[in-house]
């Protein structure tokens, strides 16, 4: 009998445009809902070039810090907020979400969990998006306080003139986003 050895992991995609995005995926909360915000950004590689075929996924609490646990979250099933969204990047590496600003959950500062799936990655990378208005909460956030002070800015979104938030993810290189081990 021939003994088989394990094979190495394979890179993901690029097949996201076919298999993973779904209609309404970036709409975690309807854009017209009271308190809705827009989060947008770009996924950039180590040279600063856009990654046009990545997939960004977010998970978050609602405005009161509660994580949704209702059935039908993928399609929002009439309750208007799922806590989960998925968006493929465009040719410029851009993504966007319509969502709610999360409340603090547990001892964490308000944040959104972000996963990025991209070519060349064996597994998705995980990070967090924090909001610039919550500087006092950042100081006591258990995870953020473990990140070297000079790297924390890579986890904090920028407020745009139109009220939206910009959160670019740099996969490598200068100003590389801090990624979390899970």
From TrEMBL:
<dbReference type="InterPro" id="IPR012786">
    <property type="entry name" value="Protocat_dOase_a"/>
</dbReference>
<dbReference type="InterPro" id="IPR000627">
    <property type="entry name" value="Intradiol_dOase_C"/>
</dbReference>
<protein>
    <submittedName>
        <fullName>Protocatechuate 3,4-dioxygenase subunit alpha</fullName>
        <ecNumber>1.13.11.3</ecNumber>
    </submittedName>
</protein>
<keyword id="KW-0223">Dioxygenase</keyword>
<dbReference type="InterPro" id="IPR050770">
    <property type="entry name" value="Intradiol_RC_Dioxygenase"/>
</dbReference>
<comment type="similarity">
    <text>Belongs to the intradiol ring-cleavage dioxygenase family.</text>
</comment>
<dbReference type="GO" id="GO:0018578">
    <property type="term" value="F:protocatechuate 3,4-dioxygenase activity"/>
</dbReference>
<feature type="domain" description="Intradiol ring-cleavage dioxygenases">
    <location>
        <begin position="36"/>
        <end position="119"/>
    </location>
</feature>
<dbReference type="InterPro" id="IPR015889">
    <property type="entry name" value="Intradiol_dOase_core"/>
</dbReference>
<dbReference type="Pfam" id="PF00775">
    <property type="entry name" value="Dioxygenase_C"/>
</dbReference>
<keyword id="KW-0560">Oxidoreductase</keyword>
């Amino acid at each position: 009998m021939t003994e088989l050895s394990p094979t190495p992991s394979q890179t993901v995609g690029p097949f996201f445009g076919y298999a993973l995005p779904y209609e309404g995926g970036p709409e975690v909360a309807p854009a017209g809902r009271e308190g809705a915000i827009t989060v947008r950004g770009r996924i950039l590689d180590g040279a600063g070039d856009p990654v046009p075929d990545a997939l960004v996924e977010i998970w978050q609490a609602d405005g009161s810090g509660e994580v949704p646990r209702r059935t039908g979250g993928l399609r929002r099933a009439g309750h208007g907020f799922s806590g989960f969204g998925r968006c493929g990047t465009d040719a410029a590496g851009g993504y966007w979400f319509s969502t709610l600003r999360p409340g603090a959950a547990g001892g964490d500062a308000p944040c959104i969990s972000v996963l990025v799936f991209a070519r060349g990655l064996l597994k998705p990378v995980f990070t967090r998006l924090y909001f610039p208005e919550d500087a006092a909460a950042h100081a006591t956030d258990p995870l953020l306080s473990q990140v070297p002070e000079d790297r924390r800015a890579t986890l904090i979104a920028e407020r745009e003139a139109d009220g939206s938030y910009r959160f670019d993810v740099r996969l490598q290189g200068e100003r590389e986003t801090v990624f979390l081990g899970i």
